[in-house]
Write a structure and sequence with these properties.
Layout: H1 2-22, E1 25-27, E2 37-39, H2 40-45, H3 51-58, H4 76-84, E3 91-99, E4 101-122, E5 127-132, E6 139-140, E7 145-149, H5 154-187, H6 194-225, E8 228-230, E9 235-238, E10 247-248, E11 253-269, E12 282-287, E13 292-300, E14 311-317, E15 329-344, E16 350-351, E17 357-363, E18 366-371, E19 373-378, E20 381-385, E21 390-396, E22 407-411
Parallel strand pairs: 3-22
Antiparallel strand pairs: 1-2, 3-21, 4-11, 4-15, 5-7, 5-10, 6-9, 7-8, 9-11, 11-14, 12-13, 12-15, 13-14, 15-20, 16-17, 17-18, 19-20
Length: 421
């Protein structure tokens, strides 16, 4: 019973396959284009459009054969002439008019933030540290006290110098009085002339004594002031910071101050854009921490880096709240100005037969190809140069036409041009 079922199933499959093949076409090659194709059902019936073929055709099971639209007897050159030659119907394309507008020229840069300066406040005299007035991370302003050294005998030296100055001033006053008295007596003929020289010498010596005493006092006061180490710049205190009781010699550090206002963005300008780079240009900076700030280019190196052939540049950024830290990765966009350009949809860009990037336009019903240069890519489109001021750009069908080909151009329904943000 099982064998009978198997043979029956195989026979049914065979019938179905034969019926399916009967609906196909027998192709005999070597008889020219469009010839040698005969329905298999016609071979079986011995005639075309027999009763079985008619029934299968009405049921939609028979393959349909259509005559070729182009005469198969034509040569390849003749066929190309009919499809693309002068006698062929014009290819339809859709165009949109674009007009040149001021195009922002911007140069993107990658770099990092850097402190304007790192200044070490050092001792100018020798002494042990009595008081440290700051801690790490503390903000200081110009003139704020950082460290106080042991005064030692410096205060006594100032007092002694003040006393010496007072004595010198008293001696000067006495010498001046003697000189004035001698001059008066001489004028009245009551004193000898040679006494005038002695009075003048004494007055000069007294004046020299006062000057020397003042210099001594100034030196004593300066030495005393050197025991107070103050901040010369504003910023944040960083390591190293001295500790109380430490002995500092002249030149030893008391504290290190990182100057963060203004802070500097440092980067490298590619040599392709160095001709446009200059100080004073506006720039916007975005850090990896999400901070967006504005600044100005303050420095462009005249010498390129030997390895990258790029030029170091700096952008100064106001940072009054010290929110931007030193060493943060950031991106900057330097605004170089504007130039005439076209803002186009990216979809209209194409390549010619030589692989040149450009745009196809229509001029007096004929296709033209213009190589273009992409200046920047924005969310609204791409800014390009290289097109005429007013250009009818092919929006639809640009891949199906070539330069010099006559076309049937019609404007798109929406002629609104993209605009820059």
């Amino acid at each position: 019973m099982r064998a009978l079922f198997s043979y029956g199933l195989a026979f049914a499959i065979l019938l179905l396959a034969g019926g399916w093949l009967a609906t196909g076409t027998l192709v005999q090659g070597g008889q020219g284009p469009g010839n040698g194709e005969t329905p298999i059902i016609a071979v079986i019936e011995g005639e075309e459009h027999g009763p079985i073929a008619g029934a299968l055709g009405e049921a939609g099971l028979l393959a349909e054969h259509h005559k070729p639209e182009i005469d198969p007897a034509l040569t390849i050159a003749q066929r190309n002439e009919l499809t693309t030659g002068s006698s062929a119907p014009l290819q339809s394309v859709r165009i949109q008019r674009f007009t040149a507008a001021p195009m922002p020229i911007e140069v993107p840069l990658r770099g990092r933030t850097q402190a304007k300066a790192t200044v070490t406040a050092v001792a100018e005299t020798t002494g042990s540290v009595d008081v440290v007035h700051v801690t790490k991370g503390e903000r200081v302003e110009v003139g704020d006290a950082l460290c106080t050294l042991d005064q030692g005998t410096r205060a006594a030296a100032v007092a002694q110098a003040e006393a010496g100055l007072a004595q010198a001033e008293a001696a000067l006053a006495q010498a001046q009085l003697n000189y004035d008295t001698n001059t008066d007596l001489r004028d009245r003929g009551l004193a000898a002339a040679n006494t005038a020289n002695a009075a003048e010498v004494a007055l000069a010596q007294a004046k020299a004594g006062v000057s020397q005493a003042k210099a001594g006092l100034d030196n004593a006061k300066a030495e005393l002031e050197r025991t107070e180490i103050v901040a010369r710049v504003a910023g944040l205190v960083q390591d190293p910071v001295a500790v109380e009781g430490a002995m500092l010699n002249a030149g030893s550090p008391c504290a290190t101050i990182v100057q963060l206002n203004p802070i500097v963005f440092t980067s490298m300008v590619p040599e392709a854009h160095i001709g446009l780079a200059k100080t004073g240009l506006d720039a916007t900076i975005k850090t990896v921490t999400g901070q967006n700030v504005s600044g100005k280019v303050t420095y462009v190196s005249a010498v390129a880096d030997n390895a990258t052939r790029a030029f170091p540049a700096e952008i100064e950024i106001p940072n009054e709240d010290f929110a931007i830290r030193d060493g943060v990765t950031a991106e900057a966009v330097v605004k170089l100005g504007t130039a005439p350009g076209h803002l186009l949809p990216q979809s209209v860009l194409t390549l010619d037969d030589d692989g040149v990037l450009g745009v196809r336009t229509v001029e007096d019903g004929v296709v033209a190809f213009y190589p273009i240069t992409i200046v920047s890519d924005t969310r609204e489109g791409v800014w390009v140069t290289g097109l005429p001021v007013i250009s009818d750009v092919i929006i639809v069908g640009q891949e199906n036409v070539n330069a010099g080909q006559a076309v049937d151009a019609s404007p798109v329904a929406d002629t609104t041009e993209p605009t820059a943000s």
